[in-house]
Amino acid sequence: MDEHSPFQGALRRFGRNRIAYASSVFLLVIVGLLVFWPAFRSPLLLRLLPEAVTQSPIGLSDAQFQPPSKAHWFGTDVHGRDLLTRVIFGARVSLFVGIVGASVSLLIGVSWGAVAGYLGGRWDSGMMRFVDILYSLPSIVFVIVMITTLEDLFRSWLVGVFSAEAGSYVRMLFLFAGLGAVSWLTMARIVRGQVLSLRTRSFVDASRVLGASHTWILIRHILPNVTGVIIVYATLTVPSIILYESFLSYLGLGIQPPQASLGSLLSEGVAQINPIRVYWWVIFFPGAFLVATLMALNFVGDGLRDAFDPRAGES
Length: 315
Fold this sequence. Notes:
Blueprint: H1 6-16, H2 18-36, H3 43-46, H4 83-119, H5 121-135, H6 139-161, H7 164-167, H8 170-181, H9 185-198, H10 202-209, H11 214-222, H12 227-250, H13 262-271, H14 281-308, H15 310-314
């Protein structure tokens, strides 16, 4: 008899997936690097660490377009800034946008799908037709329109109510809200399908007979049984939002200088490509970091999907 819980069994299956496990270790290393990198410039560590990892991400210099060297492992950009530090800080912003956007998507999608699946009938039909309408709209265009039409108005309000510094974060707030608001549709459909199959189970009927409220049944009995599916699709949502953010920043509609994201760094690198000379490092390192992170996130998401649903991995 297997004494392990379903969740423990899923973790064991995930550990046997070498690609997914290696990707999760890679992501943990990256996250740890992103979190602790600012501490490398503290006075206590400046003398102990190599010069290349103690550079400022916004420090300007006369060393424009220096190739990778001992002092600058990833080279420098058009303003003489160290590209390694810029990539690290850009990855922090991109990953932060991905995680927060996925959290917004998770909150909306799970709530919408759970309510639609539990109520059923006309409520389910109406709510899911609304989802179908949103699916027919170009989501990235919606985010672009929202940023271009509402950003200045919202910035003026923030500056008037709070401060000028608060107004500098408007673009990031729009990325959180916009990308999260257009990424919840698949989550809603998945959760709705799972809730439809669970609401007729005997344990739900027993709880209803005992007088439990609908909210209690959803929170205590139904949603815990779809946690695995929610975790899987939340993991797969993060890389899609990072890719959206990189695309918007590449177009100049995302993160703005002096802040940086992987998309804005790629945009700066592409601008330096010319027939006379190609400064390959200004586009190679941000692009490689972005591709590696997205691949690792997708491998982890696929591994979690196979771990929580072993039949999906066999098909």
